[in-house]
Amino acid sequence: MSDAFKRQAAQAAMSEVRSGMRIGLGTGSTAKHFVDLLGAEVAKGFECLCVPTSEETAKQALSLGIPLTSLDDIDALDVTIDGADEIDRGFRLIKGGGGALLREKIVAAASARMVVIADNSKLVETLGQFPLPVEVNPFGFAATRRAVGNVMEAFGAQGGLSLRQRGGETFTTDGGHYILDASFGRISDAEAVSRALLDIPGVVQHGLFLDLCREAYLAAPDGVIRLSEQQA
Ligand code: 5RP
């Protein structure tokens, strides 16, 4: 899907922010457009205090002069604007394609609202076509991998499980963890899969975002649509 659609979704979501807000900044190519647009407003005098969801986003925001803080220094955020790998009509998400799911979930949970921006190819009937990122502690990795595989089997996963690589090396998150990409194919009971994965001691977090997002801006060839739970 074209980068222009991502930019349009990001542009539309600018209507969600007001001067003086505390804003969570997502990670990924769509969130990057939002940070760019926000940076342009900050240059014109827009005031905000932002918490980035990755080192990559922090670097971009700082280069644009966007003031940053952390969740240790403020107690809540007004809104978080972030991308997604999949979103269904119940506003359940798969995130973590960019490997930032842990910080993204912590920041979204500390926000009064989470707004997703994406091109409309991310809207799905049922989650699971996109491999579910599962962030795991390197300690006891083989045992954790087996346990995640057992959960996949129990929930009828149609694909495999792979350790994420980047540039020929094991990908490591900002928190120093690994990511297992779990190809379920179809996740019909996301809440049960979430609970089963979080029951595994070596699992730090997973990319199912349930009950966190209630609004989305999705860009399509004929314009951007705003979905909200009130309309659903
Ligand atoms: C990063 C994420 C991203 O928001 C997700 O992968 C979507 O990325 P993009 O906007 O590049 O399609 O969850 O961890």
Brief summary of the model shown:
With 232 residues, the chain is an alpha/beta fold.
CATH architecture level-2 label of the largest domain: 3-Layer(aba) Sandwich
**Spatial order of strands in the largest sheet:** 2-1-3-6-14-15
The chain-level structural class is: alpha/beta
Number of strands: 15
Domain tally: 2
Q: Cα-atom Rg, whole angstroms?
A: 17 Å
Main beta sheet, described?
6 strands, mixed
> Cα distance, first to last residue?
25 Å
The H/E string reads: HEHEHEEEHEEHEEEEHEEEE
Helix content: 25-40%
How would you describe this structure to a colleague?
With 232 residues, the protein is of the alpha/beta class. Helix content is 29%, strand content 25%. The chain has helices at residues 3-13, 29-43, 55-63, 101-109, 141-154, 190-198; strands at 21-25, 48-52, 79-82, 86-87, 93-94, 114-119, 132-136, 161-163, 165-166, 169-170, 178-182, 203-206, 208-209, 215-220, 223-228. A six-stranded mixed sheet has the order 2-1-3-6-14-15, sandwiched between helices. A four-stranded antiparallel sheet has the order 8-11-7-12, with helices on one face. A three-stranded antiparallel sheet has the order 4-5-13, with no helix packed on it. Strand 14 and strand 15 form a beta hairpin. The two termini are 25 Å apart. Bound molecules: ribulose-5-phosphate. Residues 26-31, 82-85, 95-101, 104 line the site of ribulose-5-phosphate.
Topology record:
Layout: H1 3-13, E1 21-25, H2 29-43, E2 48-52, H3 55-63, E3 79-82, E4 86-87, E5 93-94, H4 101-109, E6 114-119, E7 132-136, H5 141-154, E8 161-163, E9 165-166, E10 169-170, E11 178-182, H6 190-198, E12 203-206, E13 208-209, E14 215-220, E15 223-228
Parallel strand pairs: 1-2, 1-3, 3-6, 6-14
Antiparallel strand pairs: 4-5, 5-13, 7-11, 7-12, 8-11, 9-10, 14-15
Helix pairs in contact: 1-2
